[in-house]
């Protein structure tokens, strides 16, 4: 195509490329996301629509869920948390959001690049029983894992969590998220939570508001509490010495949910704290440091 022809076509091209008019823009939903996320990390996405949406569908890494937009000063909006776990293959991924509006469905795509992140490795020598549990213990563990998977699969449209998130105990980190332990020379699955120091009997506080989804005594994790914070965010607290909540109860952010202990297969009292975001186990520590964590309360 020579320049003359291009100019002749220009009016038609312009019809595709011009900035939308005011009325059109007013009906445009918006999706604000990060450009990249490390493996083992959560990230936050802002959804907004000037008009009420009948439904919103968010698709990320092969899963779709439907968050509820809330009425705001101007239009409707919410924050959603998404994540890439340690097994996510690095590379550019599509974040797709479909807004079902009165005038039809509006699809918005954002590219988010998943990047690798370094995690530590630790070599340990432990009792054989812990490396190779008895068959009966494995059978029990299998049933417990299934119960946990059912909890981690919960996807409410409503969001109960707000920032800032609450650090469940004030103690420092004794074992990092993502740490790859090698027991007696055998590599194990990476640490999918963070171990926080705490004296036996000290209070554990809820990471955020939510519904208590599971209270149980598990073989490896001991006394556990799982809290569903909505939209696929679930926190877990392990090795507790005492429970302060029951299943089905709704807790507020920072509410005491039990006490630090050493139940399950551990050597001393601490809190193993885990966070699942849409089924992806993530490092909770960056969420307490504030970087990249939005203020969801305006
Ligand atoms: Zn742990």
UniProtKB/TrEMBL annotation:
Key words of the record: Hydrolase, Signal
Region forming the signal peptide: 1-25
Gene Ontology molecular function terms on file: metalloendopeptidase activity
SUPFAM superfamilies: Duplicated hybrid motif
Superkingdom in the source lineage: Bacteria
Limits of the M23ase beta-sheet core domain: 190-284
Entry keyword annotation includes ATP-binding: no
Protein name stated in the entry: Murein DD-endopeptidase MepM/ murein hydrolase activator NlpD
């Amino acid at each position: 195509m020579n320049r003359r022809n291009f100019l002749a076509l220009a009016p038609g091209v312009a019809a595709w490329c011009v900035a939308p008019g005011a009325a059109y823009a007013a009906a445009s939903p918006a999706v604000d996301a990060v450009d990249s996320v490390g493996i083992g990390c959560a990230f936050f996405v802002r959804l907004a629509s000037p008009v009420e949406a009948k439904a919103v569908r968010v698709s990320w890494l092969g899963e779709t869920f439907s968050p509820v937009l809330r009425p705001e000063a101007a239009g409707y909006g919410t924050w959603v948390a998404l994540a890439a776990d340690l097994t996510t293959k690095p590379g550019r991924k599509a974040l797709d959001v479909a807004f079902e509006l009165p005038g039809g469905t509006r699809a918005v795509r954002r590219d988010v690049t998943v990047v690798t992140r370094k995690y530590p490795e630790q070599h340990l020598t432990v009792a054989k029983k812990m490396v190779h549990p008895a068959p009966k213990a494995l059978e029990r563990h299998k049933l417990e894992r299934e119960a946990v998977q059912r909890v981690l699969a919960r996807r409410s449209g409503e969001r109960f969590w707000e920032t800032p998130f609450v650090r469940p105990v004030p103690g420092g980190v004794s074992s990092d998220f993502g740490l790859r332990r090698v027991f007696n020379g055998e590599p194990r699955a990476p640490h999918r939570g963070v171990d926080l120091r705490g004296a036996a009997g000290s209070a554990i506080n809820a990471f955020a508001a939510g519904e208590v989804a599971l209270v149980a005594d598990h073989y490896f994790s001991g006394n556990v509490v799982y809290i569903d914070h909505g939209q696929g965010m679930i926190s877990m607290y392990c090795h507790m010495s005492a429970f302060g909540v029951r299943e089905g109860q709704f807790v507020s952010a920072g509410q005491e949910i039990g006490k630090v202990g050493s139940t399950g297969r551990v050597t001393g009292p601490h809190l193993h704290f885990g966070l699942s975001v849409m089924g992806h186990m993530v490092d909770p520590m960056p969420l307490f440091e504030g970087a990249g964590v939005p203020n969801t309360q305006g």
